[in-house]
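Objective 1b: paired records.
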Amino acid sequence: MRYLIFALLFTLIPANLVSAQNQWQTMFNGKNLDGWRINENPDSFKVVDGCLVVEGPRGHAFYIGNDEKAAEKITDFHFKAKVQTMPGANSGIYFHTKFLKTGWPNRGYEAQVNNTQSDKKKTGGLYNVKDNFKAPVKDKEWFDYDIIVKGKHIVVKINGETISDYTEPDDLDRPERQLSSGTFAIQAHDPGSKVLYKDLKFKDLSK
């Protein structure tokens, strides 16, 4: 009888409370750009065959989910995506950032996506903070991209291998470019860059 009572009590816990704890949240439905807000050049972001295809003039797709204000309050998280670069492509995954109408996002960090483009800073690095100068993967191949933030600690993994492991110094004074809270953004860098993204999701680690 005790087990029956426990089971009944568990069913009374609000579903949204259960799902909010340590559950993966899908960010891209593979059909359209619902849940994303794009600045500058919307045509640089298209959905083709279940993939987010990023190609064209500079622009950024900011994740807003079902509640833009809530998305901008993300702190600790584990982000996952599958990424494929075409030759000469450059892109990036921003986190702890905020919507900006024009220009490069001026808040948070950028995790680099670039295997063969002329910029020497390659995939898996934290741009201008902890750069990586050797491409860990090849163009035209899908690879796993993980970003994990917990407190002041950032880990970036490509296909399970740690590429960047960075902890912010306690005395860091870089207000716009340090960990706080914010959402994610995907970068369209230039017309010559083509990158595919799919299976984008994140898990809230703040609880």
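Objective 1b, second protein:
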Amino acid sequence: METLNLFIRSIFIDNMVFAFFFGMCSYIAVSKSVKTALGLGAAVTFVMLMTVPLNYLINQYVLAPNALADGVDLSFLSFIVFIAVIAAFTQLVEMVVERFSPTLYNQLGIFLPLIAVNCAIMGGCLFMQQKVEAGAITSFGQSVVYGLGSGLGWWLAIVMMAAIRERTTYSKIPAALKGPGIAFIITGLMGMAFMIFSGIKL
């Protein structure tokens, strides 16, 4: 039951976009069409699903105090190690997308390699570390669930945003708000809507 609660919280209550506004650069830039948003969302979810559990193992068995030996604390290397793992998987995703879907690769452009510096993924790894210390994540399986849920939450957010922005092309929007302006307003309203989930007790 705790694992299910963790999964639901990571998607809706602790949504990386609407609760913490992480990953906003690629979220705003790539959410102009649903097709592109689906592709980037899948890529981010895959990278998060792979990196959060892997960083959990590294954190538990290498970086944590007394993990390697008594008196040895390598936790100060967390940022560097987490970023290295994320960058490695991002490179893998970029090569796979380029090989099997050149059209999507061209549509995503520079934002595909920018997954490596997507703060939503780094945030997921750092929040995982905090949840381990707080006792909310106690096993490798729960870290997998948290990584998957966080990725799906970001995917849900960008696809919803893309669907709304596609509709706004037929709306009369003031010239000063067209593009990123209306996107930020919509994101703020969606964030307020998602605050409803914060009242749910799990």
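The chain is about 70% helix and 0% strand. The helical segments are 2-13, 24-30, 34-63, 78-100, 102-108, 119-134, 140-168, 180-194.
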